[in-house]
Amino acid sequence: MNHSIAYIVDHASDIDEEILKKHQVYSLPFAINFSDGEYITGESIDRESLFEKMKEEIPTSSVCSMDRFDQILDKLRERKIKNVLVITMGHKFSSFHNFLNLYAQEKKDFNIYVFDSNAVSFAEGAYLVRALDLERRGLSFEEICQGLEEMKDQDCVQVRAYFGSLDNLIRGGRINKRTGAIANALNIRPIVELSEGLMGVREKIRGEKRAYRYLLEEVKKSIDPEKKYYLSLLYGQGEKEKAKLEEVFKEEIAQADYYQMVPLSPVVLVHSGPKVAAAVWACFDEEKDLSL
C-alpha cells in the first residue's frame, strides 16, 4: 500500500515487526536506566540482556531525546508527506504523550495528530492496526483520527495479563512486600486489566492452569466470531508461555481478522517482570475482513 499518511508509534506498542516494515511505520525508542548507565531500546539493550540485568536491579524507563522525532520528520520531508499520525503510550503511564504533543505543535510544516492511546503494549498498538485498516478502506486523515478517538471512547480494546511471578512487582515497589509474600506463599497471582488508562487487579487466581483458562474465558465472553476482532497474545521470558497461549487460544486465533503473537518489549518488561502472559483484543461491530 502506498501511504499518504506517515505513522509513528513508540517501543511500548508491542506490534509485530512485519507490520511496521510492511507499512513503513516509524518507531520511537525509550531509555532504560540502570545504575551503570542508560540503554536505548532497540539499540543498546535487548530482551535477553534486560533479563540478565534485572536479576540484580530493577531499572526505570524514560523518554528519549526529541532528536529522534526530528530525524523521522526529516525523512518525511524527503518523502513529501505532511499528514503524520503519532500513537503514544497513555498519558497515565508516562509523560511521553504530553511532552511529544507540545513538541509536535512547533512543527508548523506538518499536520501532526498525536493520539493518546490511554494504554500500553498492544492495547496501544491495536490503534495502529485500526488506522491502517481505515486508510485501506479510503478514509481521510481526519476521518482516521476521529475513528481512533471513537474506538477509544467505545472501550473497544481489552487487556488481561497474568503474572507468573510477583518478584519484579515487589522489588519495584508496585506491590508491598507483605502482600507479595502472602500471595507467593499461597500461589495466588493477579489477573490485571486496563481500565480508564490505569492497570488494576481484576481477579486473583491460584495456579497457572486456572489463570490461562481465565484469560481464555474473558476473551470468549467479549468476542463475536461473526464480527471483526483483533487478537494479540504476548509473553515474557522463554517459549513456555508462548506455547501455552497458542494451545489455549487456537480457535480464537483462527477466527481473528488480525492476529499476532509477540514477545513483550523491554520497556514493558521493566514494569511487568519476565514471567507474564497476556491477551489483548479489540472488537468491532463490523463484518469480518480477513484481508488485514
List the main descriptive attributes of the protein structure presented here:
single chain, 292 residues, four-stranded parallel sheet, 12 helices
Task: Write structural notes for this entry.
This protein has 12 helices and 13 strands. The chain is α/β, with parallel strands linked by helices and 292 residues long. The strands form 3 sheets. Strands 10-9-8-13-11-12 form a 6-stranded mixed beta sheet, sandwiched between helices. Helix 5 packs across helix 6 (141-153). The chain is globular, with a radius of gyration of 19 Å. The termini are close together.
Using only C-alpha atoms, the radius of gyration works out to 19 Å
Distance between the termini: 12 Å
Measured by DSSP, the beta-strand proportion falls in 25-35%
Order of helices and strands: EHEEEHEHEHEHHEHHEEHEHHEHE
Q: From the structure provided, what is the oligomeric state, counting identical versus distinct chains?
A: single chain
Main β-sheet, spatial strand arrangement: 10-9-8-13-11-12
Global mean pLDDT:
90
Q: Would you count the extended β strands for me?
A: 13
Low-confidence stretches: none
Apparent shape = globular
Largest sheet: 6 strands, mixed
Number of helices: 12
**Percentage of helical residues?**
25-40%
What is the structural class? alpha/beta
